[in-house]
Amino acid sequence: MRIGKARYLAPVAALVMVASACSGGGDDENDTEQAQEELAALPAQDLNPAPREDLEDGGDFVWAISGYYEQHNMAHTQGNLADVRRISAAVLPNAFRWDAEGLPEPIAEFVQDAQVSEDGLEVTYELNPDAVWSDGEPITSADYEAQYLTWSGEREGEFELGSTTGYELVEEFVEGDDEYSFTLVFSEPYAEWPSLFSPLYPAEYMEDEELFEEGYFNDYPVTAGPFGDVEFDATTERITVNRNEDWWGEPAKLDRIIFDSMAIDAAPTAFDNGEIDGFYLGYDAAGYELLRDREGNGAYFTRAVNHGHRFVSVNAGSPELEDVRVRQALALGINTNTLAEAALGPIEWPITGQVNRLLRSTQYGFEDNSGELGGYDPDRARELLDEAGWTLEEGAEYRTNEDGDTLTLTWVASDDFTLAQNEADIGREMLAEIGVEVDVQQVPGNALFPEYIVPGNYELATFVLVGSNPYAGDASGNYGGPVSGEGEDADWGNNLSFHSTPEINEMFGELQAATDPDRYAEIANELDAAIWEEVLTIPMFERPGLYVLDETLHNWGEFGLASGYVYEDIGWAAE
Questions:
Q1: Between the CA of residue 353 and those of 8, 22, 312, what are the distances in Å?
Q2: Cβ burial, residue 403 (10 Å; 0-12/13-18/19+)
Q3: Which long-range contacts (CB under 8 A, 24 or more apart) does 361-368 make?
Q4: Residue 102: which of 327, 358, 368 has the closest Cα?
């Protein structure tokens, strides 16, 4: 059984860039202060908002996504991706949504009420009896119980799970007075309980191993949302969701949403040609230059704080990277300020040099915990490599150990993502300066995660984690574990660094139980610092909330801590 992350992996927008391995110039302190002020002035979200009554009924929205993925069971390791999340959220139940400040509220179409006991050990749900699956079956407590049993890891069988976070703390599932109510009894207070059951799948697809694996593979056999009747077209790599005429809530304004998978670098041109209606621009310098004159002239650019961060992932399970001193040397030998400046400068985005793996800059208690490891210090990096037994012989280009093995690391990058390729090339030059050889491998974009990152067939890679909710504890799958076994038999689930410590695991347990905001923030920052010390990842920057959409499209764009859209409210301005 494979278990792991609850945050969603998203390969993101492109950047054509050229950068050296040296740090940027100028008055760094003043520049940082100004950037922090600029970032603080950004709104929490930017969705080009409009009231429903100002939108027309009907129309299609062509939404560019970065990958055509086959597994759409988000409980499954291979389905736990941001693009899959965007599709599933339109057609499957979700128990809660969050506002711009990250405060939760139940989605009344599925959960009419949810109350937590004073001691935090019990949560009672009241379901909407009008909620039905597309096959006509009611959505009842049986569906919630089936998902709890599977996602908690308690169900017997081979289920390749994406995460047990939160579910494993449930001691008992207590039926209510009828099939539309139930109570979760937790072993300890779980402050992040609103994150559970988003999305929710029908019971039979959680109970049966074969249906779990294959039921939502290139298919959505059963749905329940403002959209449904999902069509997969492998030839055009498009996935279409159609308005659900049997939806019991506010009807969707759009007739269809067409998720169009394309090479990330191709999206700006596709938008300029009218082939798509909206996409994540991010830090695509070439795309920004192409489209910047269209802002306010047919195009709307969102500017807000995104709920994700970009980083170098470090596979500590690789024999070359098992020694923490080697990983720390990588952190000190890669100038993340250079990478951030190269990525964000051309799009005129504030560059603060600060990032936190668990808290966004808009969240209470946000701090930068990088310490010395967040700086660029190649001399110290060389010392650490010497201490770890990787020495540089006189006249040699790369370091070797006592057995004569060269310290060579594989850095994988998507072949349709210019930014990732450039990051790898720049990283290779930087690490060569400290005697580390890097073999850059360009791999197909759709294969990057399923064939390289998730199985651990890499040493270094750059990508993004995007939050599915505002809670930091959801990251326990990314940085904790193992979930089973020891040593070579350890199953790290979706911890893509394949390493953690007992202290990190214990702190995640404390974090999830913390109901006091000050204590919660304190633990989150302690955790981020501990992950820095182990160098499970090397954060570069918070992802910019820069989407581009047709200016007449509303209620779509950068959602920030809200972590998703109200799909039925997305629509086109009425003429």
A1: 23, 15, 15
A2: exposed
A3: 361/39, 361/40, 361/305, 361/542, 362/44, 362/305, 362/560, 362/561, 363/102, 363/470, 363/561, 364/517, 364/521, 365/517, 365/518, 365/520, 365/521, 365/522, 365/524, 365/525, 366/521, 367/525, 367/528
A4: 358
Residue with tokens 């300020």: 337
Phi, psi of 332 (to 5 degrees): -80, -20
- Exposure string (b/e) for 59-73, b if CB count within 10 Å is 16 or more? bebbbbbbbbbbbbb
Q: What's the whole-model pTM score?
A: 0.89
Residues 518, 536: contact at Cβ < 8 Å? no
Q: In sequence order, which ranges of 292-436 are alpha helices (DSSP H)?
A: 324-333, 336-344, 378-387, 418-432
Burial environment of residue 174 by CB neighbours within 10 A (0 to 12, 13 to 18, 19 or more): middle
Sheet with 181-186: list strands edge to edge. 111-116, 122-127, 181-186, 170-175
Contacts of 182 (CB under 8 A, 6+ apart): 124, 125, 141, 144, 145, 173, 174, 175, 176
What's the pLDDT tens digit per position in 146-195? 999 999 999 999 898 877 889 999 999 999 999 999 999 999 999 899 99
**Do 344 and 351 meet the contact criterion of CB atoms below 8 Å apart?**
yes
**167: its two tokens:** 């579910």
pLDDT of residue 9: 32
Provide the β-strand partners of residue 408.
437
**Could you write out the DSSP letters of every residue in 51-112?**
-GGGB-S--EEEEEES---SB--TTBGGG-BHHHHHHHHHHS--SEEE-TTS-EEE-TTTEE
How does pLDDT run across 468-526, given as a tens digit for each residue? 899 999 899 899 988 777 888 888 878 999 999 999 999 999 999 898 999 999 999 99
SS3 content of the chain, % helix, strand, coil (to 5): 35, 20, 45
